[in-house]
Write a structure and sequence with these properties.
Elements (H helix, E strand, L loop, with lengths): L1 E10 L6 H19 L3 E9 L3 H10 L3 H18 L6 E4 L3 H16 L3 E11 L4 E3 L18 E10 L5 H9 L8 E3 L1 H12 L5 E2 L1 E2 L7 E2 L2 E6 L1 H6 L1 H4 L8 H6 L4 E5 L3 H15 L6 E5 L2 E3 L14 H8 L1 H10 L7 E3 L1 H31 L14 H12 L1 H6 L3 H22 L1 H6 L5 H19 L4 H10 L40
Parallel strand pairs: 1-2, 1-12, 2-3, 7-13, 12-13, 14-15
Antiparallel strand pairs: 4-5, 4-6, 6-8, 9-11, 10-11
Helix pairs in contact: 2-3, 5-6, 11-12, 12-13, 13-16, 13-18, 14-16, 14-18, 16-18, 18-19
This protein binds ligand ME8 and magnesium ion.
Ligand ME8 binds next to strand 1, helix 1, helix 7 and strand 12.
C-alpha cells in the first residue's frame, strides 16, 4: 500500500521557524510510522517562491529573486536535515518541472471552459497574497493578520469559475466515505468550511497583469499565474505529473495534506475545484492543525519572539525538540508555547521519566547480572501481564496516528513508561537482590521488554534516540525495520534476545 503525505510548501520570504517545523515534524512522524508499517511512503515538502511578497523581500536584500530564492530554499533544506526530517521529495515552484506542470494545468482549466477574462478591482494584501473583502478588514481598514493597508488593484485578469463547483464540493466535503469524498479534519474545521461553502462561492482571479516574478499564463504571456494557483499544483508537479512519471500513477491522490488552519480554505475548496475541472482525482484527507502563540503573543519578527529550529536544537537537542514540538497541546487546537513550558515538559517527560527508566534499568542489569539478562518465557513470567498492559496502552495509539492526535500518542507512551516505573516501585529490585529472590531476573527482563516497546513507538518522533535505546537493550537490527503491528501479544515479543550483553547505561536527556 502507498501513502502520500505533504506539508505546505513554505514561502521563502521568511527563514525557517518553529511554525514551519511544527507541520514538518508532524508529517515526518507520520511518514516514518507508515514506513514502519511497510507502506510505500512518499513524503513531500518544499518551498513556495513566486509572487509579490517574495519579489519585495528579494529587493530589500538587493538580490535578484532567483538568487534570493536559492539561498532561502537552501536554508529550509538545511533546517530539515538538522531536524532529521526524512522527506522523499523537495519541490521548488521555480523548478522547470513544476513550471511545466503549472502551464499544463492552466491549459486544461482553460480548455474545460473554466477561465474567462474580466476587469477587477479589489484590495490585495501582499503579505497574505490574497484579495480581502471589506468585511475582512479591521477597524483601521488594515489586514487583521498583517496590520497593513491592502493595496487597491484594478486590472483585467483571468478568472476561474470556482462558483461552478459549489454543489459538487458541498457533496464531496460533507461525506468523506463517498467515492471521491474528501475528509477534512478536525470535524470543527470541516463544519467551518461547509458553512462558508453554503454561503456561496465567487469566481477567483487567477492571474496578475503587472507581476513579473511568476509563471506566464500559457494562453496569455502578458500575465502571470496567481501564486496560490501556482503553489497548490506542487502536490502533483512533484510527482512528475507532466512528465508522465510513474510516481504520479503510484502516489496520487494524496492520502494526507497536512496544513495549518490559515490555509485550509485554499486546500479544501480551491485546490479540489481545480482538480475537478481538470478531471484529476481529489486528495483523500486534509488535516488542519492549530496555530500557536509564543508567550501568549503572535510569533512575529517585529515582536522579536520568533523561535528557530536551531535555537530549539541548541537547547534541547534534535530529538527532544521534535518531541516537544508535538507534546504541548493537541495538534488540531491552538495553543501557547514558551521556553519555560518546553523546559518543564522536557524535564518531566524526557529527563525524569523515559531517561530515568532507561538508566536505572540498565544500571540494575549491570549491577545484578553483569549486563546480561536471560530470556524468560511469557508463560513463566509472573510480570508478563504488566508487559501486556504496556502493549495494550501503546496499541491504543494506532487510531491516534490516523487522527493526527500526536500529543495523545506521546501521553500514551508516557503511560507505558509509568507502568514500567510502577513495576520498579512495587517489586523493589534492590530488595529482591539482597534477598536473592529468583524472580529478580524476571522483573528486569520485563522492564527491558517494556523499554523495547516504548522505543518502537517513540521512533517516529525521536528516531536517533529510539535507535540508541534499542541498541542499549541489546538489539542489533534497525528499529526502523520493526513493524509495530506485529507486537500484539507479550508471547510474540522477541526482544531482548537471549545472552545479549547490554550497552553501558547512558544519560540521554540531561536535566535542564
Ligand atoms: O502559507 N503555528 O506558506 P507559509 C503553527 N506558501 N503553524 C504555523 C505557524 C504558527 N504560529 N506559523 C506558520 C504558505 N505555521 C504557502 C503555502 S501550500 C500549497 C502553500 C505553518 O510559509 C502552518 O503550517 O506562510 C502554515 O500553514 C504554514 O506554516 C504557512 O507557511
Ligand atoms: Mg503564511
Amino acid at each position: 500500500m502507498k501513502y502520500y503525505i505533504t506539508t505546505p510548501i513554505y514561502y521563502v520570504n521568511d527563514v525557517p521557524h518553529i511554525g514551519h517545523a511544527y507541520t514538518t515534524i508532524a508529517a515526518d512522524a507520520l511518514a516514518r510510522w507508515n514506513k514502519m508499517h511497510k507502506k510505500d511512503v512518499f513524503f513531500l515538502t518544499g518551498t513556495d517562491e513566486h509572487g509579490a511578497k517574495i519579489m519585495q523581500a528579494a529587493q530589500k536584500k538587493g538580490q535578484s529573486p532567483k538568487e534570493f530564492c536559492d539561498s532561502v530554499s537552501a536554508q529550509f533544506r538545511d533546517a530539515w536535515s538538522s531536524l532529521d526530517i526524512e522527506y522523499d521529495g523537495f519541490i521548488r515552484t521555480t523548478d522547470p518541472l513544476h513550471e511545466a506542470a503549472v502551464r499544463q494545468l492552466l491549459t486544461k482549466l482553460n480548455e474545460a471552459g473554466d477561465i474567462y477574462k474580466k476587469k477587477y478591482e479589489g484590495m490585495y494584501c501582499v503579505q497574505c497574497e490574497k484579495f480581502l473583502m471589506p468585511g475582512d478588514l479591521n477597524e483601521d481598514l488594515c489586514c487583521p493578520d498583517h496590520k497593513q493597508k491592502p493595496v487597491t488593484h484594478s486590472e483585467e485578469n483571468y478568472f476561474f469559475r470556482l462558483s461552478k463547483y459549489q454543489d459538487k464540493l458541498l457533496e464531496l466535503l460533507s461525506d468523506p466515505a463517498k467515492a471521491g469524498g474528501i475528509g477534512i479534519y478536525p470535524d470543527g474545521r470541516r463544519n467551518e468550511i461547509l458553512g462558508k461553502l453554503k454561503l456561496g462561492l465567487e469566481d477567483i482571479s487567477i492571474s496578475r497583469a503587472k507581476l513579473e516574478w511568476g509563471i506566464p499564463l500559457p494562453f496569455d504571456n502578458t500575465q502571470t499565474v496567481y501564486v496560490w494557483v501556482d503553489a497548490l499544483i506542487n502536490y502533483i508537479s512533484a510527482l512528475g505529473y507532466t512528465a508522465g512519471d510513474k510516481k504520479f500513477k503510484t502516489y496520487w491522490p494524496a492520502d494526507l495534506h497536512l496544513v495549518g488552519k490559515d490555509i485550509l480554505w485554499f486546500h479544501s475548496v480551491i485546490w479540489p475545484a481545480m482538480l475537478l475541472s481538470c478531471g484529476i482525482e481529489l486528495p483523500r484527507r486534509i488535516f488542519a492543525h492549530g496555530f500557536f502563540t509564543i508567550d501568549k503573543q503572535k510569533m512575529s519578527k517585529t515582536i522579536g519572539n520568533v523561535i528557530s529550529p536551531a535555537q530549539l536544537i541548541e537547547r534541547f537537542g534534535v530529538d527532544a525538540s521534535r518531541y516537544l514540538a508535538l507534546a504541548l497541546f493537541p495538534f488540531g487546537a491552538d495553543g501557547d508555547i514558551s521556553w519555560d513550558a518546553l523546559t518543564e515538559r522536557y524535564n518531566i517527560d524526557l529527563a525524569n521519566n523515559i531517561g530515568n527508566l532507561l538508566s536505572r534499568t540498565i544500571t540494575m542489569v549491570g549491577k545484578y547480572f553483569t549486563f546480561e539478562v536471560p530470556r524468560v518465557e511469557a508463560g513463566k513470567n509472573p510480570y508478563a501481564p504488566k508487559v501486556q498492559a504496556a502493549i495494550d496502552v501503546l496499541r491504543e495509539t494506532n487510531e491516534l496516528f490516523t487522527a493526527c492526535e500526536f500529543s495523545r500518542i506521546l501521553e500514551k507512551i508516557q503511560e507505558a513508561v509509568d507502568i514500567a516505573n510502577e513495576l520498579v516501585e512495587t517489586t523493589a529490585p534492590w530488595k529482591m537482590a539482597k534477598e536473592k529472590n529468583p524472580d529478580l531476573e524476571k522483573v528486569l527482563f520485563s522492564l527491558l521488554q517494556i523499554l523495547g516497546l516504548i522505543t518502537v513507538y517513540l521512533y517516529p518522533f525521536m528516531p536517533k534516540t529510539a535507535q540508541k535505546i534499542w541498541q542499549a537493550i541489546g538489539q542489533k537490527d534497525k528499529l526502523a525495520g520493526v513493524d509495530p503491528s506485529g507486537l500484539k501479544d507479550v508471547s510474540m515479543l522477541t526482544f531482548p534476545s537471549a545472552k545479549e550483553k547490554l550497552g553501558p547505561s547512558q544519560i540521554l536527556f540531561p536535566r535542564i
